[in-house]
Amino acid sequence: MNRSLVLFASLCTVLPATAQWTPDKPGSDNIELLGHIPLGPRLSVSDMELEQELHRPFAYVGRMIFGDEGAIGTDIIDVKDPANPNVLLRWRIDDHDLHLPLGGMDVKYFKWKGRYFIVQSFQFLGGPDHDLGAVILDVTALPDPEAVTEAGRIRTTPVGGFHNIFVYRHSNERPYLFATTAGPTAHVYDLGMIVDGDATDALAGEIPIPDTVPGRQDYVGYHDFYVGFHEESGQDRFYGGGDGGYYVYDVTDLKNPQILATLTGIPALTWGHTFTPSPDGRYAVAETEVQYSPLRIFDLQPALSGETSNISEPIGAWTANWKHLSHNHEVRWPFVFVSGYLDGLQVFTMMNPKNPETVAYYDTYLGAPNTDRYPMFNGAFGVDVRNEDGLIAISDMSTGFWTFRMDGFHGWSGVDWGMPDISSAQKWD
């Protein structure tokens, strides 16, 4: 039997969403906790990213401030021994005390001309850097922390910074940063130009919220997105969640993005959050960031094939706990790895997209609900998966950085599942 089918069969026999943690048993039997390291005060940890090459065992965690607590910047963590993660560098923004929340949000890495860089996004409500979108650091010389240097900064109009970013190796072989703004478009920057010292024309394109969206607002745009190559069509495709719903664009020509599908008029949804497709681009997992709202699964085929221009009904839905909400997620077909806020790490399968099932979990947050904002805003914030060996990592807003393995999951390749070998992990070489 195909080893992927053996893994699938072994995982999918067990765990309905109701079979969740107890104080004596925070995780399912098929999840092994490897390591954990606290990073700072409550609500000071944001998103995270794992490098994908085993010879570069580094993780990057964004650091933010909430109220008077926290730090603004990036923690660089060595995961050579995943059971003993070690902070190599706590990089912090200059004039730290002059900056207002939120601080460091999303973080991604990229490779260009043999060198490695990270992009740390920033979002400030005031202070000296209210127009700062991101800082780029050259991390090629890691694990030597003293050799980490700043390689560039991206400032943005309108002001307000980048809440979320995505770094994508385009089919034209250049690295691009897709970034949210405080307006109705996502901005696209040529990272190669910036780190080469030629930032003048680095803005390579803009992806709009379509004019046809009912109630479209000029000051509300995208919240999050994914960009991936679509093998069947040969297109670079953008999947964005934001004002009014979710949108799919052909961004092969970044100067002339073409809308392929809209997902609007969805019951109880006015604003899209995270939006991630399956490797073949047919199905998509969508989050709304609203309590009691599950992750929805949509079949994009009717819109992409021309049967309709808009999709308003999901075909499936999943939640760990109906009283809570799930945050970010990573798709490694058929599995979806979720950072579930108060529910910690969650893994479900969408092999049958109409009936997704929980297959594994581990609660990284056991404290009280948040009282500063809505109660669900605490716990697991970011999640990533290293395809080469299946290492799973979580950044928890209050408890820090965690590493895990899932029984039978020793890495991911789309080919093993009859899918294109495409995920958020970029093939830089």
Keywords:
mainly beta, 4-stranded antiparallel beta sheet, globular
Please describe what this structure looks like.
The model has no long low-confidence stretch (mean pLDDT 91). The chain starts with a helix and ends in a 23-residue tail after the last strand. The protein is globular, with a radius of gyration of 20 Å. It is 4% helix and 42% strand. The strands form seven sheets. It has a four-stranded antiparallel β-sheet with strand order 1-28-27-26, with no helix packed on it. β26 (380-385) and β27 form a beta hairpin. The chain contains three helices and 28 strands. The protein is mainly beta and 429 residues long.
Compute the number of strand runs. Answer: 28
Average pLDDT, rounded to a whole number, is 91
Oligomer: single chain
Shape: globular
Which parts are unreliable, with pLDDT below 50 for 5 consecutive residues or more?
none
Which bin fits the share of residues in helices?
under 10%
Distance between the terminal alpha carbons, to the nearest Å? 32 Å
Classification by helices and strands: mainly beta
Radius of gyration: 20 Å
